[in-house]
Each structure stands twice: as structure tokens, then as C-alpha cells.
Design goal:
mainly alpha, disordered C terminus
Length: 212
């Protein structure tokens, strides 16, 4: 039945997204990333605390979680279990959303995870590459102008839904899901926003304990 294929997709994508890559990479170096920097398990904190190689590794792995959830799990799992797919795009959107939720609220770390920017990028590399490219451009512009990763991330979280609504006006489910993910990303940056307003947010390239 289609309902089981949706449930299977959602569960598998969540579990894939919930793999705490930043935590595991840091642990391999003898560091509990939750206790250093900002305490966030994402790529930016890994970059600032552990260095470039670790930061890039976490970034790539987090993005891969989102991409694989959409490009493989959503399309491959239901047929593998002889379950029908009523709406392939709905399966992909569901898988993408659940992968991001898994990253942000991982069950392995008491439902405390990252902020979902890299994982969302992986999702939209598979779902909507052109809107992702636009959001990436906005991210880089925000980062270059301010040297705040958080500003670039928040700007991208706004730009991605706008780009999807404009470029894919008939993909309503995708647009609504993208908007919800954008709101979630901004919410997850609440601490960064507070530090920006207080003037204590850390700029890119500066060694600090206040990382993303």
C-alpha cells in the first residue's frame, strides 16, 4: 500500500539524516564537539574547532545525507520492498524533509543536532539544482560582505524558498516544504541572531568559542 512506502521512506530518511557526522568526526579526534565552540555539531563549528579538513569532511558528509535520501532512498526503497509509489515527487520531498529533521534533531544525541544548512543543500542538489545555485550565490554574497557564516546561511534560507516559488510555480508541495525548511533554518539560527544583535557573533576565519 502507498501509505507504507511513505512511512518507510520517512523513517529511512530520518535515520540517514540523524547520523551525527560532525560528532563522529570530532570523536575520532578525541573531541566532544558539543562541549567546544558553539556546541553545534555542524560543519562551521567543526571547521573552527577542528580545522579545514574536518570542516570540509563534515560539510560533504552532511550534504550527502540529504542527497542520498532524495536521490536513492525515496526512489529505491519502496520498489525494493515491493511497495508502490503513488507520487514519486512527494516521496522525494518527504525524504528530503525527514533527512533535514534527522540532522537537526538526531535521536542519537537526545534530539539535539545541527542547523541543517548542508543537509538541505544536498536535498536540493537532487530536488531543485537551479534554486539551490541561486541560494548558494546569496550565501556566498552574504558571507563575503559580512564574513558571518550565519548571515549567509540565513540569507540563503530566505532565498531558496523564493527561488523555488518563482522557478517552480506548479510544484506547490515542494515550494511549501522549502518554505517550512527555510523557517526552520532561521529558527535554528536564533542564537546566532541574538549574537549578531549583541555584536558578539564570530566572523569567518577568526578562532573563537562562538561558532555556528
Amino acid at each position: 500500500m502507498p501509505i507504507f512506502s511513505y512511512l518507510l521512506t520517512a523513517l529511512a530518511a530520518y535515520l540517514l539524516g540523524s547520523i551525527p557526522t560532525g560528532y563522529l568526526v570530532a570523536r575520532a579526534r578525541g573531541v566532544d564537539i558539543r562541549t567546544v565552540g558553539s556546541g553545534n555539531i555542524g560543519a562551521t563549528n567543526a571547521l573552527r574547532v577542528l580545522g579545514k579538513s574536518a570542516g570540509i569532511t563534515v560539510l560533504v558528509l552532511d550534504a550527502l545525507k540529504g542527497f542520498i535520501a532524495v536521490a536513492w532512498l525515496a526512489e529505491g526503497l519502496p520498489p525494493l520492498f515491493n511497495l508502490s509509489i503513488a507520487d514519486p515527487q512527494a516521496h522525494q520531498v518527504l525524504a528530503g524533509v525527514c533527512a533535514v529533521l534527522g540532522h537537526n534533531y538526531t535521536c542519537w544525541l537526545r534530539f539535539k543536532g545541527g542547523k541543517g544548512i548542508a543537509t538541505t543543500a544536498g536535498v536540493y542538489l537532487a530536488l531543485a539544482p537551479l534554486p539551490l545555485l541561486i541560494a548558494l550565490g546569496v550565501f556566498l554574497l552574504g558571507l563575503l560582505l559580512t564574513r558571518y557564516v550565519s548571515v549567509g546561511s540565513i540569507a540563503a534560507a530566505v532565498a531558496l524558498p523564493v527561488a523555488v516559488w518563482i522557478l517552480k510555480p506548479h510544484a506547490i508541495l515542494l515550494a511549501v516544504a522549502t518554505t517550512a525548511l527555510g523557517v526552520l533554518a532561521i529558527y535554528k539560527h536564533a542564537g546566532n541572531i541574538q549574537r549578531l544583535l549583541a555584536g558578539t557573533e564570530s566572523r569567518m576565519g577568526k578562532k573563537t568559542q562562538d561558532a555556528k
